[in-house]
Design a protein that fits this description.
The protein is an alpha/beta fold and 694 residues long. It contains 26 helices and 21 strands. Bound molecules: adenosine-5'-diphosphate and magnesium ion.
């Protein structure tokens, strides 16, 4: 049960004065919830200083100012497009209030002649007269203290007024409870942080530019609270997983040994190490929850296969789920010969199988004659029933959150999970998204791969590039041509690729094929297949080739408008080449209008092939949300934290969370109870249920 102490801020803003159903909706849209606490976590981005209050004769133009004035005269507009004016004065001179499209009755009521009013807003000189167009604030003399302030300005949404927002926040702050301190005393002292309520009050009352910076005391503390809640929640979930009994897939290792003899290459050290880590998980009674991070081409698939063999050796089944048909197909191609030699049955199950064909596959999965199932999301439909699913491998995804991972295991009994990602994730982000998992890293490429030569070239040289490409292709090379990304419009992306296809077709004819997301799965596969078997030499594509495609003979990649892609995305794309033993070249074409920073970004790609380093740079340059598309990525969505500035605190929160659960696993101590309140404050309900009652 949520501690009572939080009740005052866990009620809807509906209860506040001046808040109707319309405003409730707008607040909810803006802050992600309609509770007072949601409004409280919505921090200002700017402020307006209304403390400047000169006499009219001394006022400086183009500033925000507050005056006490007497109303002298209402001057109606003579022409339609002219404003309604109100002449006011103090003992030193006149100022005109200017209203366009104003309702006269309202103005008469607001500004009765002869009376005094406080007005605040931006002032300017117009034909030598001081004027204030549409004052932001109007009040009576007694309101002066309330108006002559530094006013915080919040991120807004259409329909909500500034006044409304300010009122809501004011009333919300008045309901702030004093909460017990959950941060470690030493850390609080070291950082000189204030208590939670004082920090929140300060964050809502900026008095200077410094007060708006993410690293000031108030905002830093609030961010830490959020990260601590996040890390503690993840630690609780992780502890729960660890307590869960897994299956014991202990076996003689003969299948793995035989596989080593069958494959035409030696495993890299990183692969062998990772397989050992996986075997240790799977042989033991604990349930495997492991993340396998490895750059494109680092050889994750074969590692996954080794993992699957553990389940199979113990008469259980394994499933590997790929994000697309093409990749599922590719896994099948890669694994089917090995499986055949080992005497194992593979099944492919994707959305394209229907009717009889599908029921036959389902039957084999259900009766256990299939050992390993390769598939897409189709694997997790309700009518797919496994005989005995022991291991789920999920390839190339970052679309699952902590919650969904729990669900994936429900097709089997205490199913082990291996998640593979080719998106190198900076360590800090790994903590927020995969803190509940063990991590293995394939940080080494298979032997015999040459470094890719990357050039950064202005798009004015496009013709030269096409000419060079022609020569290369005539002498047997294969190439990718990646079309520009046009933000927020798939239709325009499509137009761009079709244009480029037509132009290149003039030159390359049937050696050219196209690949984009709007094509039917069959067409895509058809074209991809032709590229794989060498019939097609040049593939014009959108980012759909980003994930997983493996054609060793492809040694050239041209990326148009490289400046529009994220660094990690460029790195992923480039990973499609340099997969064989031949020298590969990547050409990043950029628009000559781009600025220095954009050029610098491209240099990072040119100078490094280390996905982890590139990801760290990308995080620094763009922030986490943009880098990975937070919404669909399963990464924590922070409200008060900006990892671009706060990531150094995440490690502290991570370590602290671990320590806390070691010392006080059921959060029974005073601090433990305070931490429980913290979890409720950030609504970590999924984790709270794992706190033992005992
Ligand atoms: P990714 O990590 O990008 O998914 P893959 O598993 O698709 O990489 O492997 C890329 C290619 O490298 C495959 O053709 C695979 O057979 C090959 N490969 C994997 N491991 C090795 C190795 N140790 N030595 C040489 N080639 C390897
Ligand atoms: Mg792969």
């Amino acid at each position: 049960m949520r501690p009572f102490i939080l009740d005052s801020i866990f009620i809807s803003v509906r209860g506040l004065t001046g808040v109707g159903p319309k405003t409730v909706k707008l607040i909810s849209k803006l802050t992600g919830g309609e509770k007072i606490v949601d409004a409280l976590f919505h921090l200002p981005i700017k402020y307006i200083d209304r403390r400047y209050s000169p006499k009219i004769a001394n006022a400086i133009s183009n500033k925000v100012a507050t005056f006490t004035v007497t109303i002298n005269e209402h001057i109606k507009a003579k022409y339609k497009n002219k404003p309604y004016r109100i002449r006011c004065s103090d003992e030193t001179g006149d100022i005109y209030l200017i209203y366009f499209h104003a309702k006269e009755a309202w103005l008469q009521k607001q500004f009765p002649i002869g009376q005094k009013r406080i007005i605040s807003g931006e002032i300017e000189y117009y034909h030598g007269m001081l004027q204030m167009p549409h004052p932001d604030m109007i009040g009576k003399e007694k309101d002066r203290k309330k108006i002559e302030i530094v006013e915080p300005i919040y991120p807004m949404t259409a329909g909500l007024t500034r006044k409304n927002m300010t009122k809501i926040i004011e009333q919300s702050l008045a309901k702030l409870p004093k909460l017990p301190e959950w941060i470690d005393k030493n850390l609080i002292n070291l950082k000189k942080w204030h208590s939670w309520d004082v920090s929140l009050l300060q964050a809502h009352n900026p008095k200077s530019e410094e007060d708006l910076l993410p690293n000031n005391l108030a905002r830093e503390r609030l961010a830490y609270d959020e990260m601590l809640a996040n890390q503690l929640a993840i630690a609780l979930i992780r502890k729960y997983h660890k307590k869960q009994n897994g299956r014991i897939f202990q076996n003689d290792g003969i299948l793995q040994d035989n596989t080593k003899k069958i494959i035409p290459f030696e495993l890299t050290n990183a692969q062998s190490r990772t397989i050992k880590e996986i075997n240790a998980d799977m042989y033991s009674s604990k349930r495997m929850m492991r993340l396998l991070q490895g750059d494109v081409g680092s050889g994750k698939t074969i590692v996954a296969f080794f993992a699957m063999l553990n389940a199979v050796a113990c008469n259980a089944q394994a499933a590997i789920m790929a994000p697309t048909e093409i990749l599922a197909q590719q896994h099948l191609e890669n694994l089917k010969n090995i499986a055949q030699k080992l005497g194992l049955n593979l099944s492919l199950l994707t959305g394209k199988y229907k009717g009889k064909e599908r029921s036959e596959i389902l039957k084999q999965i259900k009766d256990g004659s299939t050992n390993i199932v390769i598939g897409t999301h189709a694997l997790f439909q309700d009518d797919v029933i496994f005989h005995d699913l022991g291991l789920v491998v999920i390839d190339e995804q970052h679309r699952f959150g902590v919650k969904q991972r729990l669900k994936l295991t429900e097709k089997g009994k205490n199913t082990d999970i291996l998640i593979m990602t080719a998106t190198p994730i900076p360590r800090t982000l790994t903590l927020t998204a995969y803190g509940d998992m063990e991590v293995s890293r394939l940080d080494e490429k298979p032997l015999g791969r040459k470094a890719i030569i990357t050039s950064v070239i202005p798009n004015t040289k496009l013709q030269d590039i096409v000419d060079a490409l022609k020569r290369q292709i005539n002498s047997g090379a294969q190439a990718y041509w990646v079309c520009p990304l046009i933000e927020e419009s798939e239709i325009m992306d499509l137009a761009a690729i079709e244009d480029r296809y037509k132009q290149l077709y003039e030159i390359f004819g049937d050696k050219l094929a196209i690949l984009h997301g709007k094509m039917k799965a069959k067409e895509k596969e058809h074209n991809m297949q032709k590229f794989v078997n060498g019939e097609v030499k040049l593939l014009v594509a959108t980012t759909v080739i980003e994930v997983g495609v493996d054609v060793k003979n492809a040694t050239i990649m041209v990326i148009e408008h490289a400046e529009r892609f994220g660094l990690s995305q460029l790195h992923q794309l480039r990973g499609r080449i340099g997969r064989g033993e031949k020298q590969s070249n990547c050409i990043l074409l950029y628009d000559t209008n781009i600025g220095d920073i954009a050029k610098k970004r491209l240099q990072i790609i040119k100078n490094s092939e280390d996905g982890f380093l590139i990801a760290e740079e990308d995080l620094k340059l763009r922030g986490a949300g943009e880098m990975l598309g937070t919404k669909q990525s399963g990464f924590a969505e922070f409200k008060l934290t900006n990892l671009q500035f706060h990531s150094h605190l995440l490690q502290i929160a991570h370590d602290d969370a671990k320590l806390i659960l070691n010392n006080d696993p059921n959060l029974k101590s005073d601090r433990g109870k305070a931490l429980k309140t913290l979890l409720y404050l950030f609504e970590k309900n999924d984790a709270i249920k794992f706190i033992s009652a005992g």
